[in-house]
Amino acid sequence: MSYFDAASAAPLHPVARQALLASLDEGWADPARLYREGRRARMLLDAAREAAAEAVGCRPDELVFTSSGTRAVHTGIAGALAGRRRVGRHLIVSAVEHSSVLHSAEAFEAEGGAVTRVPVVRTGAVTVESYGDALRSDTALACLQSANHEVGTEQPVAAVAELCREAGVPLLVDAAQSLGWGPVAGPWSVLAASAHKWGGPSGVGVLAVRKGVRFAVRGPVDERESGRAAGFENIPAIVAAAASLRAVRAEAAAEAVRLRELTARIRERVAAVVPDVEVVGDPRRRLPGIVTFSCLYVDGEALLHELDREGFSVSSGSSCTSSTLTPSHVLKAMGVLSEGNVRVSLPAGVAGEDVERFLAVLPGAVAGVREKLGAPVAVAAAGVRGDALVVDALGKRCPIPVIELAKVIGEVPVGGTVRVLSDDEAARLDIPAWCEMREQEYVGEEPADRGSAYVVRRLS
Amino acid sequence: MSYFDAASAAPLHPVARQALLASLDEGWADPARLYREGRRARMLLDAAREAAAEAVGCRPDELVFTSSGTRAVHTGIAGALAGRRRVGRHLIVSAVEHSSVLHSAEAFEAEGGAVTRVPVVRTGAVTVESYGDALRSDTALACLQSANHEVGTEQPVAAVAELCREAGVPLLVDAAQSLGWGPVAGPWSVLAASAHKWGGPSGVGVLAVRKGVRFAVRGPVDERESGRAAGFENIPAIVAAAASLRAVRAEAAAEAVRLRELTARIRERVAAVVPDVEVVGDPRRRLPGIVTFSCLYVDGEALLHELDREGFSVSSGSSCTSSTLTPSHVLKAMGVLSEGNVRVSLPAGVAGEDVERFLAVLPGAVAGVREKLGAPVAVAAAGVRGDALVVDALGKRCPIPVIELAKVIGEVPVGGTVRVLSDDEAARLDIPAWCEMREQEYVGEEPADRGSAYVVRRLS
Fold it and tell me: Taking the CB of residue B438, how many other CB atoms lie within 10 A of it?
């Protein structure tokens, strides 16, 4: 098996494993107690905090360990918003943040707060200008990820942090995807991260709040971790998290170069060997190990199954995967194709041959899925009205509407239009994306009796 | 070293250790993913949930794993209160709940909710009658621990659950101290527990919410664990928690008998060999492994240090320990002496000889602390007003005010009074408790220029 989903969770680093085992016997007691076992647990916890703070680039007393990265984000956002409640009730996030940030923003809106979602350009990055435009006198907090979890694009965090500092607004950085590679640059105020992204164990998040940042913890009081992370400290896991962060950092420079070459090769080869594919994300300003692409006329879930059978574990932000039918909010915000989406995120230490084998297998897997989808049933061209053709794809799920569109576009004259009737939410994203890839004109969306009509004009 | 603080955290059970190691390699991936590693993680998680649900006595889909027992309590209380918001804004807790429950109650009060704190009798238990009296038509939730964490007294949970069911009020049971010994009886609605109390790893709590209980999770949305425990699941720890729960349950019946004998012996011997001691908690309706006593004229923290030097790790609910100067709310609610308090909580598997050695060491340790405290400095008997004596213990911390009282009580005639001036919060509890132990009359507390004057009448 080749596990290519490190952006979701990395396998346990050998150093983490060692540290966890060693501290199971030393770190189980209550570090608040004064007896020997408690003092020993406290020493382990303090040492882990020192190590983590050094890697983050903050003071040990600015850093607490939470039970997950999600919890660090939830607490960080809620605490900073509550701490600056008197300044105002405005929150800024980018449109491509992790769901833990976006769900925090929704919770804040439900309580009456105002949220600005800064859009991204097609690479997935915000521009410093548009982020700056969102800053207001009543802005309590701004949030920006260090790098995107779905496409790997790095955000201009240092420049945005500088802008925020000038405006007197604290910036919370979700550094989940990047902290293993290096510290976050710029004058950030709050930072959140997750150990299992860098090969640490599950159950450990990091929350750093710079001194001087107003911060008010909400919910029931709890004395542990400076009152910022309720519940008994999971010291063996914390020790393992800190040890593995130090270990991956020591390997980061060399491994980044190697993974960057591998992902550059994937970017290049996928575009060359898979027809009708869009490789997304910034080709240069990106994380070393992540590459994402979308395949026209492909059901993402079917492709994942196909790749799984071939021994490759990847994930997808496609609209057709998993329990949810909503296309990835990241791909949507970028305005790129979401259908047949695949995210490859290489774990540190991955073998180059495994990547080669993936590239060898991928074109056949994509072709196989396309073949199965190639003969959609009972899609009737409802008739030609002059030079306009109507395709009824109601009740058909992605990628069928786009496949049907592609089949009939040649039947209308250049300048003529195709109206695709669809009630699949993904069509709203995928039909414009197809037009851009195929250099046809996307005219727009019109209401229809059921679903919507997506109108496309043939240009060539 | 003899570790006698299992009620705080138990050392890792060998079965937990084995299960943790085994699942580090199998359970690190995201269980929401469809590829092999994800499916494997999901299977481990599902199996752990089945095992834990069986031990709790609920359906697997009623149980989620949280990141700690504290988190389970916080989420359980907030969720049940929010789910029954329309019924009313009244919460019932016992006065001797764990701080996670009491802090949740305070947070609820801060939001405008009303809280009734049901008092306990001198053994530390609520009576079913007084609990029933607290039920109101607008009661949204009632909380009762299965057994007390400081003194081991079992609460009449089954009877209270029955009352609550009749009243249509859900009962949340904090079963942290008892779940390793057996399931909670009676028709409870919500149950919270913590794995590291039964020898599981840190970082795992259990929250069970019966079907039909109205429950609304607060805070940002998160899909994991039925939306009730945000953040990536810590599957290796969860597997270890479930495996060790099953293991300790298999040993529970025999081990309970053995520990009960050991603690009965401590109860009896401590009362016999330590002068001026009060053994607290219910002598029969109690957890097998916990015994708590308080020693007059002893500084709890000094005694803990003395015992630690002799190789015994125990904890204290005394006012003189740790970072806080407030006496334990549990001892306070029971109306028993808090000074020189020691909680012995035996871990499963403890050796009988260690207990004997503890009993051999304890009298000398208590005597040593008393000797050191025996000559308090600069406490001036400010003068006799008729048959009234005033002791100025301002600025002196527990147990000095009580020691001074004991020294001078013989100097006033029977029927005369001693006024102890003290600004130590603990005096408010310890002086009445001393009077009860010494059969003197506690007249009451009067305001003074600094602190309070505690008036005691000599009866014998």
Answer: 17
From the number of C-beta atoms within 10 Å of its C-beta (0-12, 13-18, 19+), residue A324 rates as: exposed
Residue A441 vs residues A390, A433, A435, A444, A455: alpha-carbon distances, Å? 16, 10, 6, 9, 9
Predicted ipTM of the assembly: 0.89
Using a CB-CB distance cutoff of 8 angstroms, which residues of chain A are in contact with residue B103? Answer: 220-222
H or E stretch covering B357? helix B352-373
Answer yes or no: are the C-beta atoms of B315 and B3 closer than 8 Å. no
Residues 6+ apart with CB under 8 A from B61: B211, B226
Q: Nearest CB to B17: which of A24, A38, A100? A: A24
What are the chain B neighbours of A9 within 8 Å (beta carbons)? 28-30, 232
CB-closest option in B12, B71, B74 to A28: B12
Long-range (24+ apart) CB contacts under 8 A made by A443-449 are: A443/A417, A446/A419, A448/A421
Q: Which of B442, B306, B312 is nearest to B365 (CA)?
A: B306
Q: For residue B446, list its beta bridge partners.
A: B453
Task: Say whether B28 and A9 touch across the interface (CB within 8 A).
Answer: yes
Distance from CA of A34 to the nearest CA of B (A): 7
Q: Which residues contact A80 (CB under 8 A, 6 or more apart)?
A: A140, A141, A170, A172, A189, A190, A209, A213, A214, A215
The rounded distance, in Å, linking the Cα atoms of A74 and A68 is 10
Residues, chain A: 460
Q: Residue A7 above 60 pLDDT?
A: yes
Q: Can you list the alpha helix ranges (DSSP code H) found in A168-277?
A: 235-273
Tracing tokens 């259908």 back to the chain, one arrives at A339
Q: Are A220 and B322 inside 8 Å of each other by CB?
A: no
Residues of chain A positioned with their CB less than 8 A from the CB of B194 = 232
Tens digit of each residue's pLDDT (9 = 90 or more) over A307-337: 999 999 999 876 444 445 567 899 999 999 8
Look at residue B378 and tell me whether its pLDDT is greater than 80: no
**CB pairs below 8 Å between A and B: how many?**
209
Average pLDDT, chain A: 92
Provide the CB-side half-sphere exposure for B40 (13 A, CA).
14
CA distance linking residue B250 with residue B252, whole number of Å: 6
User: For residue A13, which of B25, B31, B26 has the smallest C-alpha distance?
Assistant: B25
Dihedral (CA of B295, B298, B301, B306) sign: negative
Q: Which positions in chain B touch A25 (Cβ < 8 Å)?
A: 12
Residue range B76-128, pLDDT digits in tens: 999 999 999 999 999 999 999 999 999 999 999 999 999 999 999 999 999 99
Which domains, and CATH codes, for chain A?
Answer: 9-248 (3.40.640.10), 252-373 (3.90.1150.10), 381-457 (3.30.110.40)
CA distance A220 to B149: 19
- Segment holding A47, helix H or strand E: helix A36-56
Residue B38 contacts A, CB cutoff 8 Å: yes
pLDDT band at A385 (very low <50, low <70, confident <90, very high): low
pLDDT at residue A384 above 90?
no
Where do we find the tokens 């405006």? A167
Strand, coil or helix: what is B65? Answer: strand
Q: Phi/psi zone of residue A30: left (φ > 0), alpha (ψ -120 to 50 degrees), beta?
A: beta
Alpha carbon distance B249, A84 (integer Å):
49
Express each pLDDT in B401-454 by its tens digit: 889 898 889 888 999 999 999 988 888 888 998 998 889 999 999 998 888 999
Helices (H), ranges, A88-195: 99-110, 128-134, 157-167
Query: Among B402, B273, B263, which residue's Cα sits nearest to residue B340?
Result: B402
Rg (CA), chain A: 24
Token pair for residue A437? 């890839």
